[in-house]
Amino acid sequence: MIAPGVNILTWPRDAALTSPPDWIPAAAKSALMTNAYNMDNFGGVIHDLANGKEFTPFVCGAGHVDPNRSLDSGLVCDLQVGDYISFHCTISYSPLQIAVFVKDLAVDCSEKEMASLGDLNYPSISVVFDPHNKVVTYMRTVKNVGSTQAGEVSYEVEVSPPPAECRHQCEP
């Protein structure tokens, strides 16, 4: 299924039987987004039927969602309500506007702002470069929800870099 956002999807009916019991909605969304793909049944990139161009994240978001694959995600970005509150404080929402989402009129943004909007622990990253500062640093913290029965688990980072004038570095 391809949709304007994974927030319109529901978690698979049998997911409660097979997914970790401590997954919160943000972990489920992260699993859906990070396991989506943009390849068709023949191994080629999906194209937009309207204009014939290849799908990019700016056209289709995370890609074609595969709920079954998401149940064995491995790593997910986890977010709590406080993270979303901090994000909304950072983009200058008022406590009254934030209350629409969290049903709490006592939101105090004085100590909740993030250093950067890019610091929201969200499973995708979009970078806006400042002409005066050529270095942008964003961090993501992931939680291992994959099988650890085999002992130590190892993952590889894969980055789809932007144009050649941009460099990226992943640590650890």
TrEMBL record:
Q: Which keywords appear in this protein's UniProt record, sorted alphabetically?
A: Signal
Where do the coiled-coil regions begin and end?
A: none
Record GO terms (molecular function)? serine-type endopeptidase activity
Which SUPFAM superfamilies does this chain map to?
Subtilisin-like (SSF52743)
Record-annotated Subtilisin-like protease fibronectin type-III domain positions: 119-163
Q: Does the keyword Transcription apply?
A: no
Tell me the superkingdom of the source. Answer: Eukaryota
The answer to keyword Transferase applying to this record is no
InterPro entries annotated for this entry? Peptidase_S8/S53_dom_sf, SBT, Subtilisin-like_FN3
One of the protein's GO biological processes:
proteolysis
What protein family does this chain belong to? Belongs to the peptidase S8 family.
Supply the name of the protein.
Subtilisin-like protease fibronectin type-III domain-containing protein
Organism field? Colocasia esculenta (Wild taro)
